[in-house]
Amino acid sequence: MTLTLDDARRIIAAAEARADEIGQPMNIAVVDAGGNLISHVRQDGAWIGSIDISISKAWTSRAFDIETKDLGENAQPGQQFFGIHTTNGGRVAIFAGGVPLSREGAVVGAVGVSGGSGEQDQSVAEAGAAAL
């Protein structure tokens, strides 16, 4: 099972609709099962600094098959994954906005969103994931 470009476009469209609804321009990335970028959108006005962050959130979510907000909670001092963000060349993102994408019970990729608050990023990512 894989994600297609059409799948990625549908996920991004749903995420963009949510971002528009909340009035926050976002960067939205979709990666495949191997963590490879399928598609990325930077909405008008979204921070250029969030381009790489959105891609890293998608990659992290797929690399560990976990929502990045949950990984972040477990990466705080005293928690089991403290320091994980320093691994993989610093590519691991430990804040909200990365959500694995599943099909028939198997993780087939992930969506990553950056450009707003953690709650906003998570909301937009969840909207994108729901489109799959």
Blueprint of the fold:
Elements lengths: L4 H18 L4 E6 L4 E6 L7 H15 L3 H6 L24 E6 L2 E9 L3 H13 L2
Antiparallel strand pairs: 1-2, 1-4, 3-4
Structure description:
- Helix 1 crosses helix 4 (118-130).
- The protein has helices spanning 5-22, 50-64, 68-73, 118-130; strands at 27-32, 37-42, 98-103, 106-114.
- Strand 3 and strand 4 form a beta hairpin.
- The protein has a single domain, classed as 2-Layer Sandwich (Beta-Lactamase).
- By secondary structure, the protein is an alpha+beta fold.
- It is globular.
- The two termini are 13 Å apart.
- It has four helices and four strands, in the order H-E-E-H-H-E-E-H.
- It has a four-stranded antiparallel sheet.
Summarize it:
With 132 residues, the chain is α+β, with helices and mostly antiparallel strands. The chain has helices at 5-22, 50-64, 68-73, 118-130, and strands at residues 27-32, 37-42, 98-103, 106-114. The longest helix has 18 residues, at 5-22.
